[in-house]
Amino acid sequence: MSLPPDDVESAPIPLLEPREGIPPVVATDEALAEVIAAFAAGTGPVAVDAERASGYRYGQRAYLVQLRREGAGTALIDPVGCPDLSGLGEALAGTEWILHAATQDLPCLREIGMMPTRLFDTELAGRLAGFPRVGLGAMVENVLGYALEKGHSAVDWSTRPLPEPWLRYAALDVELLVDLRDALEKELDRQGKLDWAHQEFDAIASAPPAPPRKDPWRRTSGMHKVRRRRQMAVVRELWTTRDRVAQRRDVSPGKVLSDAAIIEAALALPVNVHALTALPGFGHRMGRRQLEQWQAAVDRARALSDTELPQPGQQMAGPPPPRSWADKDPEAAARLSAARAAVSELAERLNMPQENLITPDTVRRVCWEPPHERTIEKVAEALGAHGARAWQVEQVAPLLTRALSVSD
Which of 157, 176, 206 is the last residue of a domain? Predict the structure, then answer.
């Protein structure tokens, strides 16, 4: 496919059909074996994408996997019919995978046996290159001059059979990823940032799976309203019950019971089903059995002894919230202020978001507990210990060293 000329005044060209048409959905072992052979024989990097059913189903599993490679064309694979794609992952071992916002798709791909050893993240590349809008549609339009139709991004991808317009959308998502990767590589090289990007991509590819969250119920939306430990226990019981029901029914927890309803019940501490029914989110449309289930959870929390109640606001690892630094440690507050200003100025000069230059959490940690020796070498060691990549250390260590000295 020939790309449009580099003319910022020209209107984007609508991309309406995959160049070889919509491929059939692969849902059998026999069809998967053919895809594996084709992609193993292909050349160059492989474009990869996955569609989930967020907001519809429990968890973040993949319901469609799209791939494209030179010599193999495009494949659409149904992980419901083909739940083990480890053979495909092995066939692509050592091949560079191109993903857009890789950290969103890698967990669900890992579940079905697909993990890259090398990758190129087009969204992250766009951030490092200074593009103001880094969604796939915006990047394809700004870099390549084509307009992608993005109307099906939030549909229920667990639907079977998948409608043809959705399959067309899915195939087009990987249609130009290789072209986008090549153009971004050239731009990063022109800006002297290509090695930085490779370090970032390597860090994503080698990162271990995220551990399960501790006390995930504490992330219930509206939790800041809940002050008393007994109320926190209600949130915990309702959240746990909801999660168990959602997992059994394979639906999004929010479709079982809203966060807002959980918070209302925690604040009100209803004594019976009648009182529960009067609360927002527990209306008369909810069946009697459901209401009794939620009231039983509330009753369990009400019956706990004081020693069994959750502790308020678990102490987070790391420094306190920056808003309290001026009172707790004015010198640390001065260091943080200087560091933030320096990072902001450098990020602007490098034309990239501050959080991609160095994470705000890393800056806070180094400013709260700086190395005893305020030298570039020691600051560099501290940054590395917090996970900063070599390019980030090289860029940030000198300016943080100066910022850490403002209170001396």
Answer: 206
